[in-house]
User: What shape does this take?
Amino acid sequence: MKDSFGRNIDYMRISITDRCNYSCTYCKGKSYMPLKRSEILSFEEIAEVVKNAVCLGIDKFKITGGEPFARKNAINLMENIKNMAGVKQLTVTTNGSLLNKEIIDRLFDIGIDGINFSADTFVKEKYSRITGKDDIEKVSSNILYAYKKGIKIKINTVLIDELDKNDFESLFNFVHDKDIPLRFIELMPMNAGQKKGKYSKKNILEFFSEYENADVKLGNGPCKYIKAKGFKSCIGFIEPIHGKFCSECNRIRLTSTGVIKGCLFYEGKNKIDFSKDIKSQLENAIINKPKKHFFEEKNAEKSMMQIGG
Assistant: This one.
């Protein structure tokens, strides 16, 4: 289905929980308060939304959180969605710390189309400082196991100000000989008074002696890639501020509380009423999807864990 600006909306990101076992400040925000279990959509309700979204031409879905694997039996929901008629693609974003070989094996068995691992550094001490958990060895092991299983892997790194040369080099060293795209995400001003991040694509490009733009599409989002000398896969950049991609946006979001968001910070009151026709509510949300975001101009106290990353 197309929105009022002619954009084809065929992708939905689904937050299934606001809970996370990590404490990354750029994600949680200062005002974060966990939601009550009664406020969170049931798996049955999420499945109903997906079925109706498919009827509107949305056939690609990503499971997010919070940390999706912090919710019990999350993989059962993923299997259900993956098996639905009309669903072409299902991927998941995770910090990777709650995975193990058994879970990864099951993800492989249900046919998961990709796992995006969030990792801002592979330097042990810095990783612990950012996340509040000493899990980098476990996460690294899970990434490698999933990669060797043949699951498509990406690594997402948020360009937070705390990172330095050692952190960037740790990321490059991890992926350079593997077919794992590394994507750098520009820091968004989430909280009141928060400034834009100090790092941008320009800073990252300084690490490469030779590179060229790569005309590839690796997923459903707005990531732009380069091919750098000495790297098996691509390096990507998601720039919501310096490379505003609103004109190409193809997604809507379902929050864990059942709100349909046409944009990350959209404040519209599109909470699904399950006593009414779900399809028409999704249609209305798509039609009213805003032309562009404005969070570089105004920001409020936000938590990515509740919005859905």
Summary: Residues 79 and 110 are 6 Å apart (CA to CA). The first helix runs from residue 25 to 28.
